[in-house]
Sequence to fold (161 residues):
Amino acid sequence: MYKYLTEKLENTKGTHIVDITMIAFEVLNHSKSELIEDFGYLELKEICDVLDWDYTEKTQKILNDAFEMEETIDAIMYRNGRTGYLAKIHQEVPNIVNGHFMYSEGHCRIAYVYAHTIAELVDKAVEIGNEIDKDARKRALAKKEKGKNAKANKDNANQKH
Fold:
């Protein structure tokens, strides 16, 4: 099964799971992982989105109160039934080079994924990676078109003079 999941990730356009932890084990550690610390610094809306929690005033108050009491995000997750896996993914962002999309690990967007199982986590990582890739491709094409239009406008302005 893990070979299948690895192959599934390898067949994406640059989705990499760069860090992963199991919340049920993380909550037992006195020293928190960098992944947990980084995740805990996200905006509350982002945390709620990753954990599939409704972003309501009640949820915001619960999270803010817990953080004020210096409770860590893994403890909050554990207490609220999120005992599975949290991962940090890097999604390579494409650039257009010579008319083709090119990917580089040095140019990526970061996202966090939570799931109850490893298989679900990989599926979510692939889905999020595909969404980021689709958005990045649209932006790259728009940037290319904007550059073409700016060049055409400049050329037209030069011809008039």
Summary: Residues 2-160 form one domain. The chain has one domain: 2-160. The mean pLDDT is 86.
